[in-house]
Specification:
The protein is mostly beta strands and about 120 residues long. Helices cover about 0% and strands about 55% of the residues. The protein is built from no helices and eleven strands. The radius of gyration is 14 Å and the shape is elongated.
């Protein structure tokens, strides 16, 4: 079984910063892409940032220049540094791992999601 465990959410004032972490555990041979999504109340889940196994990144326009995604392949961990937070960033943030291969002898891939961590930006 593969599990994604997020940490680092919480309450922060506008203009503040938070760093989210997501560690994938279990039988993992390789992970293709890792990313962060968020879902605000009454809205659809949206991509915030993604990073490939080679380090290529992709950001939503709303977070460009404020958020930074990184990953440690050896630890199967992805991070999201969030700066200059504003109330519109308030949401549940979900970690995603796509193209996960569990064994070197198998080409089977699957996607996994974390349970989500709440980020609230308010004064």
């Amino acid at each position: 079984q593969v599990q994604l465990v997020e940490s680092g959410g919480g309450l922060v004032q506008p203009g503040g910063s938070l760093r989210l972490s997501c560690a994938a555990s279990g039988s993992i041979f390789s992970i293709n892409g890792m990313g962060w999504y968020r879902q605000a109340p009454g809205k659809q889940r949206e991509l915030v940032a993604a990073i490939s196994s080679g380090g290529s990144t992709n950001y939503a326009d709303s977070v460009k220049g404020r958020f930074s995604i990184s990953r440690d392949n050896a630890k199967n961990t992805v991070y999201l540094q969030m700066n200059s937070l504003n109330p519109e960033d308030t949401a549940v943030y979900y970690c995603n791992a796509e193209g996960v291969r569990r064994y070197p002898y198998s080409q089977l891939q699957a996607d996994y999601w974390g349970q989500g961590t709440q980020v609230t930006v308010a004064s």
